[in-house]
Amino acid sequence: xxxxxxxxxxxxxxxxxAAHSRLVPQLRAMTRSLLASPVGKTLVLLVAAIFxxxxxxxxxxxxxxxxxxPFYDALSRRDFLxxxxxxxxxxxxxxxxxxxxxxxxxxxxxxxxxLRDGLVRDLIRxxxxxxxxxxxxxxxxxxxxPDQRMHEDARHLCxxxxxxxIAMLQAAILFFTFSGVLWVLSRGFSFHIAGRDYPIPGFxxxxxxxxxxxxxxxxxRVGKSLIHRNAERYARExxxxxxxVRVNEHLDGISLASGEAxxxxxxxxxxxxxxxxxxxxxxxxxxxxWVTSGFGWVTxxxxxxxxxxxxxSGKISFGGLMMAAAAFTQAQSSLSWFVxxxxxxxxxxxxxxxxxxxxxxxxxxxxxxxxxxxRITYVDGAPGRITIENLEVTSPGGRxxxxxxxxxxxxxxxxxxxxxxxxxKTQLFRALAGLWPxxxxxxxxxxxxxxxxxxxxxxxxxxxxxxxxxxxxxxxxSFDEPACAHALRRLGLExxxxxxxxxxxxxxxxxxxxxxxxxxxxxxxxAPPWILIDNTFGSLDGDTLERVIDVFANxxxxxxxxxIGSAQAHDPLFSRVVHLAKAPGVHS
Length: 588
Known about the structure:
Blueprint: H1 6-19, H2 23-36, H3 40-77, H4 80-127, H5 132-137, H6 146-186, E1 190-193, E2 196-199, H7 203-223, H8 225-249, H9 251-256, H10 260-298, H11 302-312, H12 318-335, H13 337-340, H14 342-370, E3 377-381, E4 385-395, E5 398-402, E6 406-410, E7 414-419, H15 425-433, E8 439-446, E9 451-454, E10 464-465, H16 466-471, H17 481-490, E11 503-504, H18 506-509, H19 512-526, E12 530-534, H20 542-553, E13 560-565, E14 576-582
Parallel strand pairs: 3-8, 7-13, 7-14, 9-12, 12-13
Antiparallel strand pairs: 1-2, 4-5, 4-6, 4-8, 5-14, 10-11
Helix pairs in contact: 1-14, 2-4, 2-14, 3-4, 3-6, 3-12, 4-6, 6-12, 6-14, 7-10, 7-12, 8-10, 8-14, 11-12, 17-19
């Protein structure tokens, strides 16, 4: 069984551990990133506007609550004129509330958009820092399915954060405003027991706090497992999505191997895990519903029960009773925000955990990797040469080394690195490219001279026009159309010349040989001074190989080439050979 080296495993564990910090540090880090983003000022203005709207809404609801007393008193007196006057007052208040609610909805939805703008852009920029995404992908579970965390989880987090934040602000403001009403109504309340009065100033306020406190405590005790269950469900959903995408990307190989049944088994296994996680979540939500729904039904009568002593003692009229009951309902519902929203809060906490841990892992990966005990040293040296000294590469398959203690490749040289069977040729390629720093020795690369890296297998072709594919990753304006056409013709791709301005999935429309030829056409167009190739010549058919050799003899005659491969590579192209071997004591 292949075992990851201790240093790599230790670095991966440190990254994963650093990512899992507590709630407050996670919130602080995410907030700091959002405020520092280009939309930071817009977010502050939106939050301020929402605060003003919520305060205005609370004031309007206070007026609406006060309206209950004259309206119901008019009904109890059968005062027809006053009844119509109060209906007019109601229409004014309701109209104002309608405008405020529409404004709050627009501001809330805009806040979600801007939150996602700032958060996702920040995540993408950090993730796409040079080589960081590759390192994170090799850093254990925290680097799995980054697309899910940056797309679905980030979207869900922004929407939940906006909704819960506005609701919590509204609940807090409503409680403080309506608690004042309740205090005034019940400030002279007292219990009469055994001939003695026991005053309890603000009895209705304390009753609302106690009632909501019991509900909040029960909700937390019953529903706290929902955080873990939501997080587990999102992780399983991401694995299922990745499995389906992977099948879709490799339909040719699966169909040719008649592997549909096996892939069905694998996808169904992930689906089973999703359904099991969802079932556990459903059980948790069901248990929580006993609390939330129970309190919801009891709340129908509790406000009247709490206000009834004031009414029966003659301290308030029937209209006052309805006003007090409405005020109690508003205050209690504000305090019960935690009860009513606990399932959503658990969902938010689970989503925050996934996004914040990924964000933390992304920004700490570089620092942690710098402290790995044994690392390859990368140096920017004088132009015109690459120097490899005492290079040893640690990979999942063991340790490999360059036999020659010092290898110096000068400008214009063509060097073939031959690897013994079982050696990690691709890991050596990654080490030379700076992607795989685990090992020992040093690599000195030419300062200010670009190196084009040609990985093994099917080359990466970004979605875009054919000119953009040829220019990648440089600006398309750097190369004119005749130069692009010439590069295609040199590699036998004349049929693609009329398609230079078309946007397609070129990795789907072109055969594997054509994709390799297109990648070499990119090399012809960009004409880099240095080219590092991972065992590609052996993958070329006869005609394509002849074209490539001819290109290196003409258009690329001054380019320096390092090819990692086998003895079957085109030996006349290379001026000397370097050897990759297993380190002493390591067996394949």
